[in-house]
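Q: Hi! First time asking for a complex rather than a single chain. Here are the components, and I think there are two in total. Is that enough to go on?
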Amino acid sequence: MTTTAERPQLSPGATSLDTTVVTSWKAPIAFGIFTLIALGLAVFAPRAGDTTYRWSQESDVIQVPDLVVPAQQALWAVVALLAVATLSSILRVRSKRRIPLWLVVVFAILFMFGFLTWAGAGSSLPMIGLLFGSLSLAVPLIFGSLAGVIGERAGVVNIAIEGQLLAGAFTAAVVASVTGQPWLGLIAAMVAGMLVGMVLAVFSIKYFVDQIIVGVVLNVLVTGLTSFFFSQVLAPNAATLNTPPRFDRFPIPLLGDIPIIGPVFFRQTVIVYLMYIAVALVFFGLFYTRWGLRLRAVGEHPQAADTVGINVNRTRFWNVALAGAIAGLGGTFYTIGSGIAFNKEMTAGAGFIALAAVIFGQWDPIKATLAALLFGFASNLQNTLSVIGSPVPSEFMLMLPYVVTIFAVAGFVGRSRAPAADGKPYIKS
Amino acid sequence: MSDPTEPRGDASAGGDLDPDVAIEEPGAIAPDPAPSRGAPSKPVDDDVPPPSKWHTMLRQIATGNALISVLSVVLALLVGAIMIAFTDERVQETAGYFFARPGDMLFAVWDSVAGAYTALFQGSVYNFRRDTFAAGIRPLTETLTFATPLIAGGLGVALAFRVGMFNIGGRGQMLIAASIAGWIGFAVDLPWGLHMLVALIGGLVGGAIWAAIAGVLKARTGAHEVIVTIMLNYVAFYLVSWMLRTPGLLQAPGSSNPKTPAMKDSAIFPGLLDWLAPGYNLHFGFVIALAATVLVWWILSRSSLGFKFRAVGINPNAARVAGINVKGMYVYAMLISGALLGLAGVNQVLGTVTTGFTAGIDAGIGFDAITVALLGRSTPWGTFAAGILFGAFKAGGFSMQAAEGVPIEIVLVVQSLIVLFIAAPPLVRTIFGLPDPSAKPKRRKSAKEVAK
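A: Yes, that's all I need. Here is the structure of the assembled complex.
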């Protein structure tokens, strides 16, 4: 029901109006606000001392020298550069040109550098730990957003990502505990996520129930089921049913020795490597294979797809099931991925963040992955800064990714367009 | 359980637009053609006598919404019973020697399920173990107390649904409303009555503004309200958490816990049944929720604003062509929706938890409200009934957990299954072998013809 309300403004005529007259001012305004924030930090909360960026761990073969920056001077430099970027964006909009993506990225990196330097003044920032942790925390979000992208590209809104993650975490914990085999847990988690996806598919495709209703209800159902069985069965028998073995970290030889990149990307667990493969496969499959073409056709224009002989509902069904399996795989991160026993509602809303990443990433697997990484980075940044002692109350740090997302959604991806038949059941006439 | 009748009543009152409510699945529209097709039954076939009145009535009962709803509840309770039975320890023990003495296991199954559901009933409707009627009916007042915020929140979500928007931000709106109402409640000195009113209005305005952020962003920039409301939930949570641990804002003076001081007596909602006997929790908030239901019903089906709301919800393109300010409607709808969820938050701090609150004051009601609105099919009185049903599950769930050791999460399972089944009438009909209302009255005959 929400998506139908969205569409009218996004019809071709309205979009061109919006982008030329109104939309393009959003980026300069957002730039200006962030520049003012940085300026405010520099003026009202000046910080003395140097900030040290540490790029290596003691155990690394190749040591990268630390980067030492005088905090206050660096912040002023950043403010100046941000102001330049804002001015250039204003000039570009006035001459009716688009803001290039690289400018946004450079702006974001500059702002982040300025903020980190300011927050870490007088201490050293373990960059490897920060980035490594960000990637780990982003893993379930990335799997979840891939599931969302596949579902929505096929025309089925997948709000049940949260439920699929939770089902995956639960099943992985139980199966891996009973068998002692994390790999079996991984497979079981995929099956569990797939079952949740199939329920979503059956109700939305066969019975034409509103997809958002089914998704919301499935989240509640899975939360209820897992919590019930946790209290009733797992908690009394924790030793046999809820002590999952964990996947050990598996450093990839050679690749893992590359400075900076190696420790962050290639000394992770198997689940993270599976994540790389999944992102690559989904991206390639979606845009360069027959499967992907059919999937997108079914989500954009089911009538046309049906006319050329694609079975719309069958395609949707199996792709929603596949999406469920991917999300279930993401759920394994919580239990066998980190060796933690299952607990009630342990996904804590990650499915909704993944959903936000899908829309933030404009229904594109790579962009959605980047959005998920941003969320992972932000939540880990808070952990790191609370360790070194940040001047900002930790709540505001935790709030940051969500505020940034609101800005981003309103400023940059407000004009994004969902697949045309997203959320609409296909009733063959 | 009485919810199916309410939405119907509202549908007839709300005019012919209602069957097309965005939230109803296509199948729900089907029952309408059935009577019209049944009426001119003569031309269909001459050698078959026209169906008797009884037959038609039975058919309507068998295919109507009411029966589907009742059967959905029965089916969901059945699934719940299976879960209770399978996880019961005595059932598991007796299952070990099932083939030697099957009676033992069957008895254990009956014992566990009947015990749990009896506790559920006694905790939510009437407790027969009490001596007086006043004490016996206390569970029902508990049900209404639990139902109050669910009704208010459900109305908010339902109203947004009717305009084609999905407000997942109930948690954030409740938290902001609760903080403002709570702060006025414990930090400001005002005479009795006025204090309560000011706190209530403050909370409503807070919830409305917090929700309106999403509405304005959607109207101005096209930002998807689902993302924005989810994000605002987290922002509100961390904002309130910070205020709760900062002295001078919300934290109780002289305490290091992230908790507010107790509300002043002049701001607390008065109890409705204190004259009967002490110990009843039902408070004035229920009356406000009832008034809110009437107000939402009036807005949606009697006011021109409500007409525009429904028009935008059904087809924003057509609404715009008809001259309705679609973007303005998004903002107004979120304002009202947020105020209603704010009412749920205010109800929590001024009515239910008056001894000071923490960041968990929303108690998941913001999300429960979505399920309530879905079960109520986004109609005001349907939401009201669904809120009472879920309130009963909540009240009974606690006593079930206390008396029988059945985890309260079973209630979540039953609730979600009810919504799922009600949303898919064909599934329920298939399970119980009921006739399909969209099929022709003489089903066998036509089936034969198809076979030929």
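A: The mean pLDDT of chain B is 81. Let me know if you'd like any chain examined more closely.
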